[in-house]
Amino acid sequence: MKIAVAGGTGTVGRHTVEAAREAGHDVVVLSRANGANVLTGEGLAAALAGADAVIDVTNLATTLSAKKSIGFFETAAQHLLAAEQQAGVGHHVVLSIVGIDGIDTSYYAGKLAQERAVAAGPVPFTIARAGQFHEFAGQILGFVSGPFAPMPRTLMRPVAAREVGAHLVRVAEAGAVGRAQDLVGPRDEALADVARRQLAVDGIRRRVLDVRLPGAYGRGLASGALRGGPDALQGEITFDEWLRSPDHARS
Fold it and tell me: Judging by beta carbons within 10 Å of its beta carbon (0-12, 13-18, 19+), is residue 231 exposed, middle or buried?
């Protein structure tokens, strides 16, 4: 198969590209550096010529602005789908997040808008939801410097981005099914706890504060919905195993 990966240089994208190549597929990375821009549509149709499937793992920095998130994800989805239809691509795979149906606000509003755009689009599709990545704690830690590290109270089942990338390739190979089985990590975790363990492994002295965010977004994070359901597939790499692996770039 020829598989195009939108966002192929990012946290999950690089593992998706690696997994696709290891499986023997011809891989095209869609990025602005390669002349393909999902926010303008420029270069997409040409880059997708001959592609059998597109895996969309595009992302923007975590934001609390629903407007910004919706604008990004809807625009990217619409441009990709239009280019895929023009190029005759037969399968659009989009990565989303488990448990967000009741959290249609802030960043998650954009992911739900993306799912709706893909489901209403002209290309056969699969929505593949996964748990938060093991890399998530480090991303949040990087937002604020100083001796204190506030963490939004979040209950989750984090999963290795490497395992998500391999899962997405299998989903692309299987053909469009509308909604794939969810993928979550092997253990229940709290974001503040994993942040503390990451700082300890990295040898950084910061005090982690477990902060309950207000409103629907905060309630959703703390509810346990982001742990997914009992029927989800489970990854094998625990957070602590990931911390000690080459995939974790220590701060």
Answer: exposed
What are the structural domains, with CATH classification, of the chain?
A: 2-243 (3.40.50.720)
Q: Where are the alpha helices (DSSP H) in 88-135?
A: 106-119
Q: Confirm if 91 and 54 have CB atoms less than 8 A apart.
A: yes
Residue 220: in which H helix or E strand, if any?
A: helix 215-222
Compute CA distances 230 → 94, 162, 173, 186, 225, whole Å.
Answer: 22, 22, 25, 12, 11
Q: What is the pLDDT of residues 68-83, one digit of tens each?
A: 999 999 999 999 999 9
Tally Cβ neighbours within 10 Å of residue 41: 16
Res 246: pLDDT:
95
CA dist., res. 249 & res. 246, Å (int): 7
Token match 């990590």: residue?
Answer: 185
Which pLDDT band, with edges at 50, 70 and 90, does 33 fall under? confident
Q: Fill in the DSSP letter of residue 227.
A: G
CA dihedral 133, 194, 228, 132 (to 10 degrees): -20
Length of the chain: 251
Phi/psi of residue 96, each to 5°? Answer: -130, -165
**3, 4, 27, 51, 120 from 160: Cα distances, Å:** 22, 21, 22, 27, 30
| Interstrand relation of 207-211 and 178-179 (parallel, antiparallel or unpaired) | unpaired
pLDDT at 4 over 80: yes
Q: Is 158 in contact with 189 (CB distance < 8 Å)?
A: yes
Average pLDDT (176-187) is 98
pTM confidence score: 0.95
